Amino acid sequence: MKNLVIVPTYNEIENIEAIVRKVFSLEVPFDLLIVDDGSPDGTGKKIKELQNEFTTNLFLEERKGKLGLGTAYIHGFKWALAKGYDYIYEMDADFSHNPNDLVRLFKACHEDKFDVAVGSRYINGVNVVNWPIGRVLMSYFAGVYVRFITRMPIMDPTGGFICYSKEVLSTIPLDKITFVGYAFQIEMKFNAYLFKFKMTEVPIIFTDRTLGQSKMSTKIFREAVFGVVIMKVWSLFKSFKR
Fold this sequence. Notes:
Protein name: Polyprenol monophosphomannose synthase
Domain Glycosyltransferase 2-like: 5-170
Strand content: 15-25%
Family: Belongs to the glycosyltransferase 2 family.
Number of helices: 8
Pfam family, one: Glycos_transf_2
Organism: Lacihabitans lacunae
Distance between the termini: 23 Å
């Protein structure tokens, strides 16, 4: 089984070497693709240095300018499919997602035969560390709102720690994914749900970053709120057969 973890970066120099070394220390072998949006802090340069040590399993795709989380993942998904990977993972660079949980996501898909495994902050209560209560409530009730509108049975639809099988990413029309922030994560899961892929949630503990700067903004959150309604409406006029 070929596993690829996609990590989008913008100014992650404080975290990137540690995240690379941690992923490569896991019991299950994972390759890493860093999609860097021209980080001025030297994140891309650090990856190139690390490639001298990790010559066969660390890859870098550099883009010019800050083009958005969603487009970074779409870029990575297409790269992964072209290279023949079986399971493709989304993960943040800042240790808010514990790399150890990659193994649990892998087992959920490979051993338990799910097509999508979501690292879920809310499947077993609320498992978020270092977030102010306002942000926790905003995130939690965003999930309630998404489930109400879409009827998708996912407790953490905005979560960004995910394993997709290659069949899912080959089926979803990636060029038609339109959103870039929170709504991108919802749109991908909603597509997988509409195509009737088997989905599960794996409980995780989400720990807010201790190094670097958060990329969250009210603009991204607004995109999710209004984007969900748009997604639901267009889903009524499309066919989802595979």
